[in-house]
Design goal:
Distance between the termini: 15 Å
Radius of gyration: 10 Å
Structural class: mainly alpha
Shape: globular
Largest sheet: none
Strand content: under 5%
Length: 65
């Protein structure tokens, strides 16, 4: 999962990382690791992110054009 994909959906929803944290139940410090250090989320956390953003896991995986 590339953070830029997540950021694209955050921007579309006008959400901050804090809102994603609240809606997904994932601590903001964990989201920071994905964003700033390129850590890969567990399958469970990837599902939580996709559910919070109301998108499919495939949309998180899509390569940017």
């Amino acid at each position: 999962m590339k953070w830029s994909n997540v950021q694209k959906f955050l921007d579309m929803k006008h959400w901050s990382q804090r809102v994603l944290s609240e809606k997904s139940g994932i601590p903001i410090t964990t989201l920071d690791k994905y964003k700033f250090y390129g850590n890969e989320p567990s399958f469970t956390n990837a599902c939580k992110i996709a559910d919070a953003l109301e998108i499919s896991l495939d949309e998180l995986r899509e390569e940017e054009n």
